[in-house]
Amino acid sequence: MRWSRALVCLLLLVLAGGGSAGEESPGAPERARFGEFIPASPLLPAPAISFVDLAGNTVSLSEFTGKIVLVNLWATWCEPCVREMPLLDKLELKSVKIYLDPKSTVERAFKVQGLPTSFLIDRQSRILGRVEGAAEWDAPKLLGVLKSFLGDDEIIKASLHKARP
Predict the structure, then answer these.
(1) For residue 33, how far is the Cα from the chain centroid?
(2) How far apart are CA 116 and CA 132, in angstroms?
(3) pTM over 0.70
(4) Quick one: pLDDT at residue 137?
(5) Count of CB atoms situated within 10 Å of the CB of 83
(6) How far is Cα 142 from Cα 148, in angstroms, rounded to an integer?
């Protein structure tokens, strides 16, 4: 399979578990910097998007309702994106699932301004906030944000790739 020059990949971390920890997002900073979590205010529904798995089956984001989801959009040609990937891998991840986004619908649906960009989605499929630019996912501050929404939940990793048609 050939990849396009503008390969867009989406990393989806499904943070499973019940409970209502972190239902309220932390207070919004006056001015967020690149790589910092920017809480959403108000919480809006995540866009209705779907992905294609490696077998060609369509999977909707709504199928992850009831779980915390981290959607990370990145590209192979984007140096900050590539630097960010090993930091995401440092999170305790249990299993890997791969999905494709062949028409770039995810990037358009989230109205992404630049790469990398990540969105944290709650158990009710609302956008809790975003991170614009490369983030230090293993840093205490960002881990604290994630844990505030998770409690002791497990983390599952899945990647979504935009392939050249």
Answers:
(1) 18
(2) 6
(3) yes
(4) 86
(5) 12
(6) 10
